[in-house]
Write a structure and sequence with these properties.
343 residues, alpha/beta, single chain, 14 helices, two-stranded antiparallel sheet, 38% helix
């Protein structure tokens, strides 16, 4: 019963928000504070079957191809679209894992889930955070040109997918009309990698090895290097206490995946500075120019990011449209207990 009570508000909030932002609130009216002409109506109703286009190729500006699954109404016509970019695979993104597409597509939306560079089926080189701005711009504009699109694109997703959203807003694609960044950081140094100045070692080590490694170990490295990573990971799972106690900590073996060691890269930048500024949303609040619903949890590890982004864009956003149309939804949940169940 408790699980249902946690999940239901998340989906209903997404439904109300996306329908209102994409369909009911013309952008010409948003320039005024809020939308004085908005009227409460009946909730949307499911009316379409779902058709899926799997593993669709999306070309980026440098020739790299990323792959996407497209869930769309089984009907002719053009629809607003929701975009989620993820490094975790198309079936394990925060929204696909919770069946977001099953709610929206029958109500007249297209849901596009695409995979970050070098992750799973996508090509290129994986460079977390830094790669997202140009890539997100290209994906949004590609979506807007498809025959099923009405030219309006919004973004969804939490955690790293929330980072993808913020980077999409920063890149300012012309067809992006709103975003719903959830459970994510505004300041990567203070909130993601070095909380309060101390490195989040276990988080950084496990994310760069367990979460990202299983795919990186299968891509573009020698069979010997892949086997070394697999063996080290087996040792880590068998004896976590010993392996996580390695000194120096940056020599944690499973983080070395061929020639990639994200943990060492992050550890090489222990103080706040340009390395972190260029990839953190906080550096770009003044450039953000679309309406957003910021969603966070009071006990979530990225709690400050939600209300910081809300406050900053509301006061410093690039347009009246953006400043007057920031919303914040905070609820009493935390990572591991959040409505999407995603870290």
């Amino acid at each position: 019963m408790q699980k249902q009570l946690i999940q239901r508000p998340w989906k209903s909030w997404f439904g109300v928000l996306a329908c209102a932002l994409l369909l009911s609130w013309p952008q010409a009216v948003w320039a005024v504070r809020g939308n004085p002409n908005a009227k409460l109506g009946q909730p949307s109703k499911a009316q379409y079957e779902i058709v899926v286009d799997y593993n669709v190729s999306i070309p980026l500006r440098d020739g790299v191809i990323v792959k996407a699954d497209i869930h769309r109404p089984k009907a002719g016509g053009q629809f607003p679209a929701l975009m989620e970019g993820t490094p975790y695979g198309k079936k394990l993104s925060s929204e696909m894992a919770k069946g977001t597409h099953e709610f929206f597509v029958p109500r007249g939306y297209v849901v596009v889930t695409w995979v970050s560079r070098r992750r799973f089926e996508s090509g290129g080189v994986f460079n977390p955070h830094l790669q997202e701005q140009n890539d997100c711009y290209d994906v949004v504009e590609w979506m807007a040109k498809q025959p099923w699109s009405n030219g309006k694109v919004a973004t969804i997703g939490i955690s790293y997918m929330g980072q993808v959203q913020l980077n999409t807003v920063i890149s300012q694609p012309p067809h992006l009309v709103c975003a719903v960044p959830g459970l994510t950081a505004a300041d990567l140094w203070r909130e993601w990698y070095y909380r309060g100045g101390a490195m989040e070692y276990v988080f950084a080590a496990s994310w760069s090895s367990l979460t990202l490694g299983s795919d990186l170990a299968k891509r573009n490295i020698s069979a010997k290097a892949a086997q070394e990573w697999t063996d080290n990971m087996a040792l880590a799972k068998a004896d976590k206490e010993t392996l996580y106690s390695v000194v120096p900590a940056v020599d944690f073996e499973p983080c070395q995946i061929g020639d990639v060691n994200l943990l060492k890269e992050w550890a090489a930048h222990p103080t706040d500075g340009p390395y972190w500024w260029k990839m953190s949303a906080k550096s770009y609040f003044k450039e953000m120019n679309v309406p957003m619903m910021h969603m966070g949890g009071w006990y979530d590890i990225f709690q400050p990011g939600s209300y910081t982004a809300f406050n900053e864009v509301q006061s410093k956003g690039a347009s009246e449209l953006a400043r007057d149309n920031q919303r914040l939804f905070m609820a009493p949940f935390g990572t591991g207990k959040n409505p999407a169940g995603y870290s």
